[in-house]
Structures are given as C-alpha cells and as structure tokens.
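Weekly sync, protein design subgroup
Attendees: M.S., D.O., the rotation student, P.L. (late)

Item 1: inverse folding check
M.S. brought a backbone from last month's batch and wanted to see whether the design step gives back something sensible before we order anything. D.O. pointed out we never logged the input encoding, so this time it goes straight into the notes. Structure tokens as presented (357 positions):
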C-alpha cells in the first residue's frame, strides 16, 4: 500500500484468504444491471429495497438491514448500538473484533471494553461467559452488556444449534445482547444445512453482521437487526462514521446476484467442499497434523519451518500465524480441485523430503 511492490499479479497459488478472490459472475452481472440510468442515493433506491426484502425472506422475519463498506465497520457499529461506553463485550480470545479490527469496536463505542473468553476450537465456552459476568459486579468494573460470537469461527469451525442454545441460555440469564460476526455466515449455513433463522434470531441473535465479501462480492457487508429497537438511528451511526454509501445501489445490487437462486449457498458449499478435499489430502501426509476440526472453508495444519519456507519459495501464499507453525489454508468460491491437489502435492513432496533428513 503506497509503497512500490514487486508482487506479480494475478495470484493463483494462494490459500491466504477468501478475500483474495474476485467477484463471482452472478454478483458482477447484478452490478452491471444496477448500472442503468439514475437512482436515488443513500439507500433510497429500488436495488437496496429489493435486497433488504430478499434478506427478510431468507431469515423469515421482519428484520432491518443496512449496508456498510466492510466487516470491521459492520461489527463495530453493531456493537456500538448495543453498548454504552462503560459496558463490556465478551468474546473469544481469537475473535476478529479483538485481534483484527485495530480497536475499532472500542473506538466506535467510545471505550466499551472487550473482555476475552477461552473456548476450544475458536468457540466461546458458555461457562466462561458466566464466570466472567460473575467475577465482578461492582461499579469499578466495565459492566458486561454483550456477547459476540463468530459463525463460522476464526478457526474454521461452526457452532451447532445446541452450542448456540447454550450461549443463548447465558445471554438470557445475565440480560446480555448477542452479536454474531457472520463474515463467513454462508459457510456456516452451508455446513449445517439449516434454515438461516435456526442459527440467528431463533437462538437469540440480536444483530447479525452478514458478510458478502468473502462469499463473492467486491465490497459491502450487511448489518441485519432482528431487534428493531437497536436499529433506531443506526443510519446516523453509519453516516457519521463515513459508512453511508451515497451510490448505495453499487453495494446492494451485487447482493441481489448473490442471494437470487441461492448463489451464496452454492458459493459457500463449494469453498467448504474444497476445504474438505484439502483436509482429506493433508490428513494422508505423514508429518502434517490438522489443528482444528474442518467444518467451513479453511483448514489449519501444523507444518515445519523449512516446509513453510519452501512452500513460500514455490509461490504458495498462506497465513502461518497460529502459534509456531500453525498454518491456515483458506478456500474461496473459485478455488478448484486442481488448486487443492497442486497444493497438496507440493506439501507432500516437501514434507517427505524433510522427513527423511
Ligand atoms: C474478514 C473478517 C471480517 C471482516 O473484515 P474486513 O476486512 O473489515 O471486511 C470480520 N470477521 C471475521 C471473522 C473475518 O474473517
């Protein structure tokens, strides 16, 4: 960014993130359709209205929908609408809102503290919610007000309905709001094969940040309010934070391409399947261990330093930030079986080489 770069693009040999991928053809076509003549600005257009209606149809409830530019804004503004500055938000210690948003949730809520909870496989342990709430209740401590969970999680796992119900039990018991970071919500729905309502408002989710970017859009995530009171004046929050698109139809129209004919679910099914194939291939390689149960579109594996280095030298791009040697391989809507097999072939070859040494 801003610096001269010697990167060769386009990249093909990448499993770094699903946001490296392009816009899927259906979203692209819908964007082009939206580019006809003039429409009202700031979300008063028919495209935005149609997508919002489609989202209400998908969730089978009268929810309120807003579009912002990215997931960080969606999460931060959603959480700010739930909390006052003296409150706290409980989330998993590896949550995106804690680790990857540069303090935006605290910034936009004017100081609401994010408190971290443990939990296996990237999922909040419901008992940890109780412990954290009961730990202190005096006036000197930021009052717990909201729980934030990520579905699918940062570790590629998915909360089941009973697991969500266990979280809901705690939020009910302690009068906490429930926020869901759904940057990969589509992958969770595709994995579980349930109606979207079963893992959102039916289990007490007040606001869902419904990500489209990683599923095949170029830009623009949806904030879905199941609680109408929380949505009051949300448009002012969006405007003040620079998140109200004036030509809103260019955020919303591509969503129509994604949501018509269940393209969003097909894209998610595909990336989940590619991750499943990759998991199968990696599990067969001696010296490679899978770190978390693969449920969505990513596989985490432990590789040795020399193998990581040589994979990078061969041009493979992936994250290796989990502990010492924990690597993340993320599949996208356009990852092919060939991509997966080539990656696995190289890993197999290099691992065997270093195993012998
Ligand atoms: C990608 C992602 C987001 C959104 O990130 P932006 O870069 O702000 O769009 C939010 N939560 C999770 C878990 C993510 O992976």
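Designed sequence read out in the meeting:
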């Amino acid at each position: 960014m801003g610096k001269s770069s010697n990167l060769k693009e386009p990249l093909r040999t990448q499993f770094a993130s699903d946001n490296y991928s392009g816009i899927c053809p259906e979203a692209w076509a819908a964007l082009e359709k939206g580019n006809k003549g003039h429409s009202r600005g700031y979300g008063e257009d028919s495209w935005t209205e149609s997508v919002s209606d489609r989202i209400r149809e998908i969730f089978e409830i009268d929810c309120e929908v807003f579009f912002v530019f990215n997931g960080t804004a969606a999460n931060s503004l959603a959480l700010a609408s739930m909390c006052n500055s003296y409150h706290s938000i409980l989330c998993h210690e590896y949550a995106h809102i804690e680790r990857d948003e540069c303090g935006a949730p605290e910034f936009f809520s004017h100081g609401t503290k994010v408190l971290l909870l443990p939990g296996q496989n990237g999922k909040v342990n419901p008992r940890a919610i109780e412990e954290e709430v009961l730990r202190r209740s005096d006036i000197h401590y930021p009052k717990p007000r909201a729980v934030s969970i990520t579905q699918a999680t940062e570790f590629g796992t998915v909360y089941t309905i009973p697991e969500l119900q266990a979280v809901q039990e705690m939020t009910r018991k302690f009068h906490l709001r429930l926020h869901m970071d759904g940057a990969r919500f589509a992958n969770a729905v595709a994995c579980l094969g349930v109606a979207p309502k079963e893992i959102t408002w039916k289990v007490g989710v007040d606001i869902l940040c419904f990500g489209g970017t990683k599923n095949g859009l170029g830009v623009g995530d949806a904030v879905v309010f199941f609680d109408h009171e929380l949505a009051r004046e949300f448009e002012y929050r969006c405007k003040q934070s620079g998140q109200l698109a004036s030509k809103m139809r260019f955020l919303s129209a591509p969503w129509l391409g994604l949501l018509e004919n269940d393209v969003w679910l097909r894209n998610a099914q595909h990336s989940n399947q590619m991750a499943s194939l990759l998991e199968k291939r990696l599990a067969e390689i001696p010296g490679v261990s899978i770190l978390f149960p693969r449920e969505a579109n990513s596989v985490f594996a432990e590789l040795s330093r020399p193998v990581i280095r040589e994979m990078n030298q061969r041009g493979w791009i992936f994250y290796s930030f989990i502990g010492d040697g924990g690597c993340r391989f993320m599949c996208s809507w356009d990852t092919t079986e060939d991509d997966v097999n080539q990656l696995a072939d190289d890993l197999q070859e290099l691992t065997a080489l270093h195993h012998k040494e």
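Discussion: The chain is about 40% helix and 15% strand. The first strand starts at residue 64 and ends at 68.
Action: P.L. to compare against the previous round before Friday.
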